[in-house]
């Protein structure tokens, strides 16, 4: 799996702010959306273009537009929803495919509870969004679902990734590309990313 750890100064700056111990729900949400936009910018930098003529005030002018069926964004419930607005800000016409998974806190294995995917996945690029790639179980299960539904172009966008999760996704799906603001040190005994962000879902939703 190819891993892009985005070194853009805005990404690094915002990630530092996200790691602050006492950050309001509002600020965590806002920064999550902003970093999601920046990751989207990077993850779409090689989309194919096609030529066309745009009708302008002075007649037809050559222009370019994104070729083929548009993207589907795949938020993993619940925390992935926190990145959705940031992605849609740049790709407002994207179809949204929602996947519901939570981690069993003892086994750390993902439990699926919802799946509503966009049509025409065979022709779409899927951008899977989830703030945290920890053991990688949730990401692998989501990619399994997408591939089963015919999707073959998949990119994962996460705020923070653990090396353990990267290895697991790589073993199961080496064709997937990962975009992240940081590859952190690793997981603690509870399966939390160190230093990570703590519980991203709770911080985005203001629960706990
Ligand atoms: C978190 C996070 C990922 C998953 C990552 O979700 O948002 O989906 O854990 O862990 P993994 O890589 O080990 O699978 P959580 O289960 O806390 O649910 P939530 O999004 O509903 O808060
Ligand atoms: N889920 C989170 O929200 N944080 C982690 O560090 C791991 C899983």
Task: Please tell me about this protein's structure.
It catalyses: UMP + diphosphate = 5-phospho-alpha-D-ribose 1-diphosphate + uracil. The protein is α/β, with parallel strands linked by helices and 208 residues long. It is 32% helix and 33% strand. The protein contains six helices and 13 strands. The strands form three sheets. Strands 1, 4, 5, 6, 7, 8, 9, 10 and 11 form a nine-stranded mixed beta sheet that branches. The longest helix has 19 residues, at 25-43. The two termini are 35 Å apart. The model has no long low-confidence stretch (mean pLDDT 96). The protein binds 1-O-pyrophosphono-5-O-phosphono-alpha-D-ribofuranose (PRP) and uracil. Residues 76-79, 102-103, 108, 110, 130-139, 165, 191, 200-201 line the site of 1-O-pyrophosphono-5-O-phosphono-alpha-D-ribofuranose (PRP).
């Amino acid at each position: 799996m190819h891993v892009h750890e985005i070194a853009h100064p805005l990404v690094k700056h915002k990630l530092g702010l996200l790691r602050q111990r006492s950050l309001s729900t509002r600020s965590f949400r806002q920064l999550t959306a902003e970093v999601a936009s920046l990751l989207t910018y990077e993850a779409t930098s090689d989309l194919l273009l096609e030529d066309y003529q745009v009708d302008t005030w002075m007649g037809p002018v050559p222009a370019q537009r994104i070729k083929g069926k548009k993207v589907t964004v795949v938020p993993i419930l619940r925390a992935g929803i926190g990145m959705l607005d940031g992605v849609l800000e740049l790709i407002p016409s994207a179809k949204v495919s929602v996947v519901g998974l939570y981690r069993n806190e003892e086994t750390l294995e993902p439990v699926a509870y919802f799946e509503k995917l966009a049509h025409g996945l065979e022709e779409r690029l899927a951008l899977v969004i989830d703030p945290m790639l920890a053991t990688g179980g949730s990401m692998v299960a989501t990619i399994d679902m997408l591939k089963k539904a015919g999707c073959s172009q998949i990119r994962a966008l996460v705020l923070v990734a653990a090396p353990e999760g990267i290895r697991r996704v790589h073993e199961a799906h080496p064709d997937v590309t990962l975009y992240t603001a940081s590859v952190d040190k690793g997981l603690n005994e509870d399966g939390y990313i160190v230093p990570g962000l703590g519980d991203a879902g709770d911080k985005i939703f203001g629960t706990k």
